Amino acid sequence: MVERKGENWCFKKDVTVQKAGDGVERRVLAFCDELMCVENTFKKGAVGAMHHHPHTQITYVASGRFRFTIGEETKEVGAGDTLCKQNDIPHGCVCLEEGVLVDFFTPMREDFS
Q1: What are the residues facing 21 on neighbouring strands?
Q2: 12 within 8 A of 37, measured Cβ to Cβ
Q3: What is the reported pLDDT for 53?
Q4: What pLDDT digit, counting tens, does each position of 69-80 carry?
Q5: What is the rounded distance in angstroms from the CA atom of residue 7 to the CA atom of residue 94?
Q6: How far apart are CA 33 and CA 106, in angstroms?
Q7: Do residues 100 and 60 touch, judged by C-beta distance below 8 A?
Q8: Nearest 5°: phi and psi at 13?
């Protein structure tokens, strides 16, 4: 994947799928040092475990329904909703209806490469 870093084009068909948990698949799409786009596909009932990291993360709900916790607050979100997770704030989710989340990280997540 490192060989794709900073490339102008990223075609989904060329991206390797990574298992990111039970019922969760991750595709690291376009990225450079400052920014990374990641697609996560969730099966119903799959869990994005509570975690935190030193990256600011914005999540766009492309499809499905999810129950998200950010810090001490929990809300249900659906297609078209957007979430902002500040650096080091604990967050996680449960997939209520099969769907896709698109994450943007700044800076890039080196642990995904």
Answers
A1: 24
A2: no
A3: 96
A4: 999 999 999 999
A5: 33
A6: 8
A7: no
A8: -60, -20
